[in-house]
Design brief:
The protein is α/β, with parallel strands linked by helices. Helix content is 38%, strand content 17%. The longest helix is centred in the middle third of the chain and has 16 residues. The chain has a single domain, classed as LmbE-like (Rossmann fold, 3-Layer(aba) Sandwich).
């Protein structure tokens, strides 16, 4: 069973959006897993075999306790009843306390559909008298990471200090050579340069070197103020 399940539309989204958060959660002793909803293929420089190998390498860098793929269709992901049933079943079997989903506004239809699907499956996972596998379970919290395809000035619910985790985060992202290196411009600013600059911007908002933003539709609860930056 997991403490935290990060659900991603495609392999690499969890790394882009919250690899720093994953590393912090792992360092705190929590069991963390990633569920990719699709294979992410086809892409211009990828294949199913390449993406699987890249995902395995990134999983090792992050030290995840569990990773799986739901096998839903890339580019045409939809929050269907069948997909909801499949995802709710995984949630009941893994029983995470927290879910992380993509931010709910995006230009990429797969990302928007993923978040709608995740929120519906979270609700379904608690149902009794159903044909879902496992026992009813309702994750206590759902947070949203940012891996978006829109240029937006969004105010997040909180920004996590990932200064100590930055190098390991970028190492996990670099595992996806087919997505972030192959066929990309080699002159700066590269996409990796832009990711660093974005992390530096969010870090500057809280007075640290690098940060990761997160959103929440639900109120955040604090036991004390000791962890505030």
């Amino acid at each position: 069973m997991l403490d935290v399940m990060v659900i991603a539309p495609h392999p690499d989204d969890a790394e882009l959006g919250m690899a720093g958060g994953i590393l912090k959660l792992k360092a705190a002793g929590l069991r963390v897993g990633v569920l990719d909803l699709t294979s992410g293929e086809p892409t211009p420089h990828g294949t199913l075999e390449i993406r699987a190998a890249e995902t395995q390498a990134a999983t090792a860098v992050l030290g995840l306790d569990w990773r799986a793929n739901l096998g839903l269709p890339n580019r045409s992901l939809e929050p269907t009843l069948a997909a909801r049933h499949a995802l709710a079943g995984v949630i009941r079997q893994q029983r995470p306390r927290w879910l992380f989903a993509p931010y709910w506004i995006d230009a990429h239809p797969d990302h928007v559909a993923a978040t709608e699907l995740i929120e519906a499956a979270r609700f379904w996972a608690k149902l009794t008298k159903s044909d879902l596998p496992g026992e009813p379970h309702h994750p206590a919290r759902i947070y949203h990471y940012f891996c978006i395809h829109l240029k937006q000035a969004i105010v997040p619910a909180f920004v996590l200090d990932i200064s100590a985790e930055w190098e390991q985060k970028i190492a996990a992202i670099r595992c996806y050579q087919s997505q972030f290196v192959a066929g990309r411009p080699i002159e700066p600013p590269t996409i990796l340069d832009r990711l660093r600059d974005e992390a530096a911007y969010w870090g500057s908002q809280i007075g640290v070197r690098y940060g990761e933003p997160y959103a929440s539709r639900e109120p955040l609860g604090l036991k004390d103020l000791g962890s505030l930056v």
